[in-house]
Amino acid sequence: MLGLWGERPHAMRAEVLTTLFVLAVAAGDLTLYPLIHLRLATVLPVGVAVVAVWWAAFRWPPRAGLRGAAVPAAMLLFAATVACSAALALRRAPDPVEGRTEVQGLLAGVAIAVTTVALSRGSWRGLTALRRGWPLALFLAVLVAAVELLTGRHLWIPSGLSWAETSRTIVAGAFRNPNDFALAVTAMISGTLSHAATLPRHRSRPLRAALHALVVAGVVVVALTESRSGLLACVLVLTVHAAVGLHRRRARVGGRSGGPPHPDPARRRHPRAIGVGLTVAACAVLAAAFLVPALAARNPVLHLATSAAEPGTARSDRLRLDLLRAALRYLRDSDGLGTGAASFEVLLARDPAPGVASRTWLHDTFLELLLQYGAPAALALAALLLLVVAALVRPPRRGRRSRLVRVEALGFVVPYLGLGCASATVLTTPIWWLLFGETAAAAWWLLGSPDEGVQPRARPDHAATGQG
């Protein structure tokens, strides 16, 4: 007992540090830029990853079998493969300065993913500590967006960009563009909803209400970015959480969760009436936003729908497809070991017939990793993603926690794929790797964690069974 009491402060300290780690990474350029100026943007994440892996190794439970080691082993293999591929890509980089900068950002991102998995330890407490960081990150993102709206200025967006000059209501937060910000906020929304779902139902109603209000503010921020991919990802994430929440509520009210239905019908009608009232109020606000002319003129969803029909949007979509075709052509002509760090833009500039209207980033980080760093790094990433898929399609275990972690993993996979497939490049973006680590940590727990996530069996009532 003394040993347990002695370990409790250390465990609480580790959980607090884990929560702060998520907040620091999800803060975007608010923390990244100071680290770059201090020349710690790579050294610090790599050092933290080494310490986290060392700490997790000493706390590895003896009852965890080989199945429980699949995800951390795959993550370490991926990190080692990327490190080797990065060394070769650095030697092949057409621009040594740009190549070194990209490799440093890539290694820092992989270190963030490794740290996330190590801090989770595949345990429920580790996932809970990670989960607590997302509401804090969402609050910070909403605050930054509010500052942007009130001041009419973006934090780090340079002047001259069309979207920044034509509209003062588009927000980008502490990120490079509105698209990245929208998908990052979507991930924060999902993490906040997951955290709210794990809170005790009756003892934390004010906190749950505050978290749901924060989610509503986050959805407004996503709409203000006018990002198609961000809005689509947000709708998907909210749909998944809402579907699971309705299923859980029906099971609880109908008594199908293993216990009897609520004994007091009046207490059941009270929250239902509140829910109906809030739904009616929300529908009224939405109708006013689209029908009242003064509000419709400032409606970001209407702006997004209008811009989708403009010729510039069609040109942008065609440009993305042309960039993918050019990258596939360069990949076909390579030896499969990578064309070099930060090489796509150089290859595009040197190509006499690139087939694109504008020379820019690839806008597909998965293909960018395969092209520039080779098949080994891409295959290691694919193997880890397959483990995540295996965890999600595995027959669910009994218990509420298993369902919650599945929804949590899906809520992180959607913005992770959105950033990887729609952003200009997120190869060196910390939050993309944080989402990768979060999905891997959830898969670790689902595939066979030390605590298995199964609710403990109730002990038999000896008085009822007649056993002494």
From TrEMBL:
Bilayer topology: Multi-pass membrane protein
| Sections of the chain in a coiled coil | none
Q: Which InterPro entries match?
A: O-antigen_ligase-rel_domated, WaaL-like
Signal peptide boundaries: none
Gene Ontology, cellular component aspect: membrane
One Pfam match, given by its short name, reads: Wzy_C
**Annotated stretches, region: Disordered:** 251-270
Q: Where is the O-antigen ligase-related domain?
A: 214-381
Subcellular location(s) of the protein? Membrane
Membrane-spanning segments:
37-57, 69-91, 103-124, 136-156, 206-224, 230-247, 273-296, 370-393, 405-425
According to the lineage, what is the superkingdom? Bacteria
The record's listing under PANTHER family reads:
LIPOPOLYSACCHARIDE BIOSYNTHESIS PROTEIN PA4999-RELATED (PTHR37422:SF13), TEICHURONIC ACID BIOSYNTHESIS PROTEIN TUAE (PTHR37422)
Name used for this protein in its record: O-antigen ligase-related domain-containing protein
**Provenance organism:** Mobilicoccus pelagius NBRC 104925
